[in-house]
Amino acid sequence: MKRLITILAVMLMSLAALTGCGPKEAETIKIGVNLELTGEVSVYGVPEKLAFQLAVKEINAKGGIDGKQVELVMYDNAYDTAKAVENATKLATVDNVVAMLGSATSAPTLAIGPVAKQYEVLAFTPSGTNAKVTMDGTAVNPWVFRACFIDPFQGLVLANFASNTLQAKKAVVMGSSSSDYAKDLAAIFGEKFAANGGEVLTVEYYTDTDTDFSAQLTTIKGLGEFDVLFVADYAARAGLIIGQARSMGIDVAIIGPDGFESPDLNDLAGGAANVNNVYFSTHFSTLSTDAKVQNFIAAYTAETGEAPSALSALAYDAAYMLFAAIESAGTDPVKVRDALKATTNFAGVTGTISFDDLNNPIKSAVVVKLENGVQVEATIVNP
Amino acid sequence: MKNLFSKKNLIWLGLLIVFFFLVQFLIDIRVITPYYRTIVYWVGIFIILGVSLNIIIGITGQLSLGHAGFMSIGAYSAAIVMQNMPDMTGLLLGMLIGGLVSILVSFVVAIPTLRLKGDYLAIATLGVGEIIRIVILNLEITNGASGISNIKNLISWPLLFVFVVLAVVLSANFKNSAIGRACISIKEDEIASEAMGIHTTKYKVIAFIFGAVLASVAGSLYATTYYVVKPETFGIATSINILIIVVFGGMGSLTGSVIATGFIGIINMFLQSFAEVRLITYALVLIVVMIFRPQGLLGSKEFGLDKILGFKPPFSKKLRKEKST
Amino acid sequence: MQQFLQQTINGLSIGGVYALIALGYTMVYGIIKLINFAHGDIFMFGAYVGMIAVMNFNMPIYLAFIIAMAVTALFGVIIERVAYKPLRKSSRTAALITAIGVSFLIQNGMLMIMGANIYAFPQVIPNRFFTVFGLRLNMLQLVIFATSIALMIILQFVVSKTKLGRAMRSVAVDKDAAALMGVNVDNVITITFAIGSALAAAAGIMVGLYYIKVFPFMGFTPGLKAFVAAVFGGIGIIPGAMIGGFAIGLIETYVAGYGSTLYKDAVVFIILILILLVKPSGLLGKNVKEKV
Amino acid sequence: MSYLTVEHLTKNFGGLSAVSNVSISVNEGELVGLIGPNGAGKTTLFNVLTGVYKPTQGKVILNKDGKSIELSKLPPYKITHQGVARTFQNIRLFKDLTVLDNVKIAMNQQAKYGLFGALTRLGKFYASEADIEQRAHEFLKKVNLDDLAYDLAKNLPYGKQRQLEIARAMATGAKLLFLDEPAAGMNPQETHALTEFIAKIRKEMDLTIVLIEHDMSLVMNICERIFVLDYGKLIASGTADEVKNNRKVIEAYLGEEE
After folding, report:
1. C-alpha A228, offset from chain centre
2. In a domain, C260, yes or no
3. CA–CA min distance B285, chain C (Å)
4. A26-149+291-363: which CATH number, 3.40.630.30, 3.40.50.2300, 3.40.1190.20, 3.40.50.150?
5. CB-CB under 8 Å, A212 with C261
6. What ipTM goes with this model?
7. Which residues contact A136 (CB under 8 A, 6 or more apart)?
8. Which residues of D touch B317 (CB under 8 A)?
9. The pTM is what?
10. How close D242 gets to chain B, by Cα (Å)?
């Protein structure tokens, strides 16, 4: 027992010692990062971490911002809202960061938002697509920004694309019941597609842990003819669905959201040969001839050994938008927030970006066509 | 002497009051910064969860792996009520509703499943936890996979303190009563217990419901501390995190759970930057504790005042002497 | 009707996977009464080993099977020796908690080593389709189905007809008595874990080939469902694991196809609880009451 | 009407008949023995009498205060509430609890407060707890175990554990005790002490006792009547001398002789 008390006492003392250090004059510019780095969801967090690190490395190589080096203070929230709140509190009050990047998914970002507001340090999520992320009840949360378009926007884009470009009349929707991403997309797509004069025959749900979709696909096949299959999910499951649908003889066009974009899509679909007549909306296309995009792809690939995904592109843009804001406003968190809010026509790899009243980016989407697993065509679509 | 205002109770009360104001003072002078406060909140909430699971596992001997399910009932009740009443009344009302729903659900679950023994019970309760999660995932009122966000933050040190003390004191009273003795006898030997005239099913159900209600209260506090509730938060991983607290602190030792939670809270803080190591450490702790010290940190003993102040044991839980074990 | 038959085929092919994993569960439980909670993760481990053998060492698939089964068997034996053996005399609750710890350790260990990335298992066997009476069948489905039945028959033969099997059964009935009769109890348990883990590895590779996706948490859900399958059929009984696996696969598919997919997993757990209540010893099991 | 009546009791396990068509009656205040070779069904009969197993056929009736209660319809804990308690062949004490707690648990029915009282400690909680504590100590004094009250049950010497188990059964307020091989594993001195102990408590507390025993000296010494089971059937009953000379009993124990 005595030993235990000693240990506890030592810990308490070191705790007190830690609190002793107040904010020092910053020699570096500290930017907080609050991401899903472990657990299942780390597939979304890790590419963003790599993109942030790439951006920081690049800016520091160019001499930093106003001569100061940029330093990332990175914490893992493991997709746990409690951890996300703890991390955000620590970044804002202990590390005294200028601004916070993250999280990659919506749920932790929803928990970070109120903390950002309370301590007046902005939180910038590259890819939290849930519409509520930048909201505080019915009003906007002035301290939360995002770099991606929101779920409703993508739903609209895809519905229009299906009706107008593919001339589809009947659609079938599939999505994960355990993801709000899928549910929101499916709902908006359904509304818009119907408004365009189309008909959604059914919405089939499955869970995140499923790997076998044959039951749902068999049901779908039994519904008769349809023109397009909308799979509202990430590549991890969408790839499998594409492969299993093709093997069951469902060969209509398959469309999907930005989640489709992944180097693994073809493999998961059982080979590039299965990935034909597949379209997805996204933030940027590797087909783009823009030098910025090509440089990013080259740098990211050289740095990480992997091709960048939409998530890493968004994270990369978020980092640079933040750098620009810091450059123009200095390191005062409130001024940085104002500067970020005022961003207009920022030329990033995912498009030209400004913010609307709800701190969502105004930009167009790209719909990419895959043939034999390769991007063959990119269409810019405005809703 | 044997009443509510016994010397021992008064000393406890005094210590609690001192502790409360000490922490409040440290918060006021910002030695406990907002960040440490979030750690304190986590520890407080998980103390309630640990103690409540300990009632079921450590005291009654019924291995339950679905505790997070009951936590989610409280969390969602508070979240839903506070959508319309974002104030203290809303929180307390949500807590109350959560408690009632938990009683109902745990009763329905307990009657059939508690007939099962040991590992079968464990798997069945794991199933129950998953069923609760799946139901929440698919209900309209719980907002499905998105969960509920923008929950009013009402947590504060006094609020947390009141509920943690309440939960621990009630649990200790539970343990040190005829009901607690009946539960312990079930853990020791169910057949002998039944032969001693103890209605084992009844007491198992009581313990299960009691634990479920406390978990639900902890869930309500969770909701108001962390702004967001979503179904994944209350999966099997959380149930196992709570189990780790119970195992680490000692099965049957309420004070063990309290100390273990504090300990884990501090470890979490230090391992913040070593996220991957953290989960592996927990898994190892679980295995190593089971192999080398299956009774946990304190075993079934309590860390109490009796020994320190030399009181005569009020109930014979405390040993006058311990012979070779 | 056609659709119903197609769903039945779908169900049997998922069921085959559950059955393969359940075989390992049931063997270990049959011998030492331990719910090896980590069995699903051993299955995941096997899938990774097989994948690495094919992807990084360019081995032919049959060699990958052999390597993965051997490595995973060894892995299972190490787990048994390090984590479970010291607990053989402890309560079953303690053993179960340890098994949960082992499960978390394997998952997170794999996560640390290989990352959370989803890997695609190389498609080295071209997946062919047949259409029979308008039903689409696929090669791998048939392979999984056939393998699980073949393995079940082999195992049943080993346990009921060989010397090793006799030793296993004697250990299952009474470890101490078996030891007195000259059975090396430790070896028998080790071999049981080795076989169970090798089976899991085989299942892992087949799932890799069929479902492609390989990731650190892939073992958890199938592991749980395989456990339900084992209990359904009568845990400890080899043909029971088989029947349970197919039954759970079919039920799940019918619920997904005709009811609500949303509650598919909930239905599996409800079945588990019902089975435990109505006939805890499972479909093929005999009721045993605690000796007073 | 006798105190305990067993009517045509049969208990089958699968196809096996462990107890078949046994009828026994025990009078109030009697001390009877139940003997028979290994596997004769003695413990099974005890398990049916105390509700652990439900009989396949037949009834067990307890006549108490002019009322007859059908024990075979009650679960074990309710049978205990009727003043019937037992010990086990392989001691089943609450090993990690103290001697005092073992007795207190047996006295649990005497607690005069419910869940609310337990949680808030309002009402009769303190009074009732003090009362139970005091009575438990008194009880332990009576059975000469009070000096060990705070020892863990598992740390008691073997003989004392047996004694504690009997004491614990009595502490439930039982008037009818079933003792399953109380002298198993004891040396002659311990057996002797136990014999005296049983005789003493029986007199002091007005108990009716049924015991299973292999130690013939104990059975023959203190049992007033003896029942003999073999292959689940009652083959003889009577006083020690009568049973000793019964041919069927000799055959059952020694095997059939030509």
Report:
1. 25
2. no
3. 8
4. 3.40.50.2300
5. no
6. 0.88
7. A113, A114, A117, B150
8. 98, 101
9. 0.90
10. 34
Compute the distance between CA of residue C217 and CA of residue C196 in angstroms, rounded to an integer. Answer: 19
CATH number of the domain at A151-282, out of 3.10.20.90, 3.30.420.40, 3.40.50.40, 3.40.50.2300?
3.40.50.2300
Structure tokens at C142: 């048939």
The parent domain of residue C198 ranges over 19-219
Residues of C in Cβ contact (< 8 Å) with D47: 292
Q: Which domain, by its residues, includes B51? A: 34-235
Number of structural domains (chain C) is 1
Higher pLDDT, residue B311 or C107: C107
Count chain B–chain C contacts defined by CB atoms under 8 A. 111
Question: Does residue B60 belong to any structural domain of this protein?
Answer: yes
Averaged pLDDT score across all residues of chain B: 88
D52 contacts on B by Cβ (under 8 Å): 191
Q: CB of C54 within 8 A of CB of C35?
A: no
Report yes or no: A178 at the B interface, CB cutoff 8 Å: yes
Confidence of residue B314 (pLDDT cuts 50, 70, 90): very low
| Number of domains observed in the structure of chain B | 1
SS3 string, B65-94, reads CCHHHHHHHHHHHHHHHHHHCCCHHHHHHH
Taking contacts as CB-CB distances below 8 angstroms, the residues of chain D near C292 are: 43, 47, 52, 88
Instruction: List alpha helices for chain A, DSSP H.
Output: 2-20, 42-61, 81-93, 106-119, 151-160, 180-195, 214-221, 235-247, 265-268, 291-304, 310-329, 333-341
Say if B109 falls within a structural domain.
yes
Query: What count of Cα atoms within 13 Å lies in the side-chain half-sphere of residue C161?
Result: 6
Contacts of D12 in chain C (CB under 8 A): none
Query: Does the pLDDT at position C181 exceed 90?
Result: no
Q: Regarding beta strands D225-230 and D233-238, do their DSSP bridges make them parallel or antiparallel, or are they unpaired?
A: antiparallel
For the stretch D124-142, pLDDT in tens is 899 999 999 999 999 999 8
- Residues B226 and B223: their CA atoms lie apart, in Å, by 6
Contacts of C35 in chain B (CB under 8 A): 119, 122-123
Q: Of B61, B117, B287, which has the smallest distance from its Cβ to C98's Cβ?
A: B287
Distant-in-sequence, close-in-space partners of C132: CB < 8 Å, separation ≥ 6: none
Instruction: Supply the pLDDT for residue B260.
Output: 93
Mean pLDDT across A31-57: 90
For chain C, what is the mean pLDDT? Answer: 87
Q: Is residue C283 in a domain?
A: no
Count of beta carbons in the 10 Å neighbourhood of residue B29: 8
The rounded percent of chain B whose pLDDT value lies above 90 is 63
* DSSP string computed for A278-298: EEEEES--TT---HHHHHHHH
Taking CB atoms and an 8 Å limit, are A270 and C218 in contact across chains?
no
> What's the pLDDT tens digit per position in C99-126?
999 999 999 899 888 887 788 888 887 7
Report which secondary-structure segment, H or E, holds D144. none
Q: How confident is the model at residue A284 (pLDDT cuts 50, 70, 90)?
A: confident
Every domain of chain A with CATH number 3.40.50.2300 lies at 26-149+291-363, 151-282
Interchain contact D/A (3 or more Cβ pairs less than 8 Å): no
* Closest CA–CA distance from residue C90 to any residue of chain D (Å): 15
**What confidence category does residue D215 fall into, taking pLDDT thresholds of 50, 70 and 90?**
confident
Q: Which of A359-363, B120-124, B303-307 has the lowest mean pLDDT?
A: B303-307
Mean of pLDDT values over B183-194: 94
Probe site for chain C from A214, A219, A244, A267 (most C CB atoms < 10 A): A214
Residue C277 lies in a domain: no
The answer, yes or no, to whether the previous bond of A103 is cis (omega within 30 of 0) is yes
Does the residue C252 lie in any domain?
no
Q: Do C276 and B116 touch (CB under 8 A)?
A: yes
Q: What is the structure's pLDDT at A4?
A: 52
pLDDT higher than 60, residue A274? yes
